[in-house]
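Table S2 (text version). Query chain:
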Amino acid sequence: MIANDLLFIFISFAAIIATLERTNGIVFGSSEIDGRVVEENCANTLSLVACRIDPKDQRKMTHKLFMCDFEVFGIVQGVFFRKYTQKQAASLGLRGWCMNTRDDTVKGQLEGEEKAMNEMKHWLQTKGSPSSRIDKAVFSVPREITNFSFKDFSIRR
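Corresponding C-alpha cell output:
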C-alpha cells in the first residue's frame, strides 16, 4: 500500500513538474514553438534541474507584441494627462506616444504585450490624471506586430 501511494505521489509530482510553464526564463518541462519541441529533455528526465530557454524562443512563447491607436475625450488638456499617461505606459513596459489635439482630446499609439496594453486601455478609460474627466476613450482594433517601432513612450507636441 505504501509503495503504491509513493508511486502515485511520484507520478503526480512528475506530471506537475513536466507541465509547469516558464518562470523568469526557467522552464520545467517541454514547450512547442513553431512546430518544434524546445528543451524536450527537461520533461523526459523528470528532474528538478532548471532548463534554460533561448531568449528568442522565450519571446515567441509569451511575448507577442500588439499596437493600437487611442483617443481620449473629456477634460484631458491642461490637467497633466499626457504626463500621467507617459508615466503609466512606462510603468507597464509599453512604448508609443501621445499628444494633444486641436479638438481638445489626447490621442496616441500604444505598443506592447496584450496584458499590459489591456491594463493601459482600462487606465485610459477610467482613471487618467487626477484632475482629468474622461468622457470616453476610443481604441483601434489591436494589430499584432513583430517588433517595436518606438524606443519608449513619449509626449509629442
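Notes on Table S2: The CA atoms of residues 77 and 104 lie 6 Å apart. The chain has a mean pLDDT of 77.
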